[in-house]
Structure formats: structure tokens, C-alpha cells
């Protein structure tokens, strides 16, 4: 789980398991909308070292295959809150942070 640095968070804060997912209804009258969901997450481990925008911004060669680059690309290329999928290699890398 990453706490949105756009809203005062610190980046990676914990590992967790999604416990509840609810679709959020689209707003009427708006033609093009991104699907939205609300989630509840149970924390399974707390972070041991900082991993946020400042640590990941150095990894900007989008084709280098590094897990840090994947996270930088998916989280910080476009500044919005999001839920992302990650590769097994990036999941293994993140496991070293707990």
C-alpha cells in the first residue's frame, strides 16, 4: 500500500490484503469516466524502509526492466490515486521492504 504523496502521504507504508471491494456508481451526465472502486485493506506487514517518489524518481529509463522503474512509471508518471497491477519481479522486490 502506498499513501498518496499528493495528499501528504509518505509513499510505501504497508503490505496488505484487500478485504472488501465496492464499485462506485458513475456520475450521471458525464460521458467519459474512469471506473472507480472503494476498497478496504487489512495490514499484514509494516514497511521497514522508505520507498516513495524521491527514492523512485531516479528510475526513469522506462525500458530498463527494473522493479523500481515499474513502480515509478505506474505511480508517478501521472499524478492520480490508483490501484495498479505489478509484475512478479516487482512483487518480489517490494517484499524486501517489509
Describe the protein in words.
α2 crosses α3 (88-95). The chain is globular. The chain is built from three helices and four strands; from the N terminus they run ββββααα. The protein has 98 residues and is an alpha+beta fold. The chain has helices at residues 53-56, 67-76, 88-95, and strands spanning 2-3, 11-12, 14-24, 36-46. The protein has one domain (2-95).
Features of this protein?
27% strand; 22% helix; 3 helices; two-stranded antiparallel sheet; 98 residues; globular; 4 strands
Domain count, please report it: 1
Tell me the helix content: 10-25%
Classify the secondary structure makeup into a structural class: alpha+beta
State the end-to-end distance: 12 Å
DSSP helix count? 3
Shape: globular
List the secondary-structure elements in sequence, H or E.
EEEEHHH
Q: What is the average per-residue confidence, as pLDDT, rounded to a whole number?
A: 92
Rg of Cα set = 15 Å
Strand order of the largest sheet: 1-2
Oligomer: single chain
Major sheet description: 2 strands, antiparallel
Number of DSSP E strands: 4
- Beta-strand residue fraction: 25-35%
Please mark out the parts with pLDDT under 50 across 5 or more consecutive residues, or reply none: none
Amino acid at each position: 500500500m502506498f499513501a498518496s504523496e499528493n495528499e501528504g502521504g509518505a509513499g510505501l507504508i504497508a503490505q496488505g490484503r484487500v478485504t472488501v471491494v465496492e464499485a462506485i456508481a458513475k456520475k450521471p451526465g458525464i460521458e467519459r469516466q474512469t471506473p472507480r472502486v472503494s476498497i478496504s485493506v487489512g495490514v499484514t506487514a509494516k514497511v521497514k524502509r522508505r520507498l516513495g517518489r524521491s527514492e523512485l524518481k531516479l528510475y526513469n529509463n522506462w525500458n530498463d526492466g527494473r522493479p523500481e522503474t515499474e513502480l515509478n512509471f505506474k505511480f508517478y508518471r501521472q499524478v492520480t490515486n490508483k490501484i495498479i497491477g505489478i509484475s512478479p519481479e516487482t512483487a518480489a522486490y517490494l517484499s524486501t521492504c517489509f
